[in-house]
Specification:
Blueprint lengths: L2 H20 L4 H5 L9 H20 L4 H4 L2 H5 L14 H5 L5 H19 L10 E3 L6 E2 H28 L1
Antiparallel strand pairs: 1-2
């Protein structure tokens, strides 16, 4: 397997896991929060998709799917257009109130853009610096692994919350 195949497989697993959680979830399950400070499935999937969209678009030097495909208007959230959930309050988490169809559509569009980008990568691409705000600067390889790690954690959390919602 080459590096493109490795990243395609990794993001493909995230994509499948998102669908495993979202596809059969009711609106009530998507909005369920185990307590007032916990994240809902809707927020977790929106957030992991927003982070992937933001970070991959920056690395690929393309516009975010959120903007280019009109998801920012379709979600109609009361946040800054480029918000992706990092540092949001519990109140803001509760404002992500969207259904499975819209969550899945946005994730599918981001996954398609991500798969196209990572499918073209070669080993030499991974050392390219994509973010100089940190010391040391962040390479493409480090950024992609970070997104994969974050996404897998959040989709796992979403699956756990779904289990809690169904047991209550």
């Amino acid at each position: 397997m080459d590096i493109a195949g490795l990243f395609e497989d990794s993001f493909g697993r995230i994509h499948e896991s998102v669908h495993d959680v979202v596809d059969d979830a009711s609106d009530a399950e998507l909005l369920f929060r185990p307590d007032a400070e916990a994240n809902s499935i809707a927020w977790l999937v929106w957030h992991l998709t927003r982070v992937q969209d933001d970070h991959v678009a920056a690395a690929a030097t393309t516009e975010q799917v959120w903007i280019s495909e009109g998801f920012v208007e379709r979600f109609d959230l009361p946040f800054d257009r480029l918000a992706h959930g990092y540092g949001q309050s519990s109140r803001e988490v509760g404002e992500v109130r969207v259904g499975a169809v819209l969550l899945a559509a946005y994730h599918d569009a981001v996954y398609a853009r991500t798969a196209a980008f990572v499918g073209s990568l070669t080993d030499g691409d991974l050392d390219r610096i994509v973010d100089e705000r940190f010391d040391p600067p962040v390479s493409l390889g480090v950024r992609l692994v970070s997104v994969i790690s974050d996404d897998l954690q959040h989709v796992g959390q979403a699956a756990y919350v779904l289990g809690l919602a169904r047991r209550r």
